[in-house]
Structures are given as C-alpha cells and as structure tokens.
Amino acid sequence: MEKKIIEDICLSLDNGWLINPSPKQGLIKGFFQLISAEKKYEHFSMYCFVMNGMLHIYGCVYDELNGDTAWIPLNKSMPEIVRIIKRKVISQKKHLFSIVNRRIHSEQNM
C-alpha cells in the first residue's frame, strides 16, 4: 500500500522520479529513496516513508546532507502533495549543494 502511494507521487512529480530499487545504503522496511533520471537531480535524492496517514519526506545531496523534513497529510489532493514537495523539499536542493560545496572548499583550504 505504502509503495503504491509513493509510486503515484513519483508519477505525479514528473522529472522521471522513481523509487530506487537498489539504494546504496540499507533502508528500514517501508522507507524509500526516490531518484530522478534527469541530470539536474544527479546527486539529489529524496527519502520518504508513510506513517499515520502522513508522508514524511526530505531531500538529500550526495547521500550525505539531509534537508528539512516535510510532513504532508495524504488526504490532500495529489496536485497539492506535489506542490508541497516541490516547495518544501526539492526547493532545498541548491541550498544543500551550497553547504556541501562550502564544506569541501573549506577543507581544501586547510
């Protein structure tokens, strides 16, 4: 049931989002990594799970730095769920990459 909900969300997101069938790190049962086939999301993924009628989802860059978690009630319409994911999760992508790039740059200058 949860996997079907996540698959429906991936289809609605466009940009080639899908559940990663073989994530690099082991995940707890019911937890999913979402990846995109598009180059612009190459090092950005989202992790999510469904609990108590809510989608818990956050973005991640390089499987290293996590963004803020969005809690989205699943009784909302699919367009509203997609809008919230884009606004609260995917929109953090540039910010997360800038943090990682600053960290790498500061480590190189040490």
* Annotation field: number of helices: 3
Amount of helix? 25-40%
Shape assignment: globular
Mean pLDDT: 92
- The whole-angstrom Rg is 14 Å
Biggest sheet record? 6 strands, antiparallel
Number of strands: 6
Low-confidence stretches: none
Looking at how many chains there are and whether they match, the oligomeric state comes to single chain
Overall domain count: 1
Helices and strands, in N-to-C order? HEEEEEEHH
Structural class per helix/strand content?
alpha+beta
Strand fraction: 25-35%
**CA(first)-CA(last) distance:** 50 Å
Question: What is the fold's blueprint, element by element?
Answer:
Blueprint lengths: L1 H12 L3 E3 L11 E6 L7 E8 L2 E8 L3 E2 L3 E4 L4 H11 L4 H16 L2
Antiparallel strand pairs: 1-2, 2-3, 3-4, 4-5, 4-6
Task: Describe the protein in words.
- With 110 residues, the chain is an alpha+beta fold.
- The model has no long low-confidence stretch (mean pLDDT 92).
- The termini are far apart.
- The relative contact order is 0.15.
- The longest helix has 16 residues.
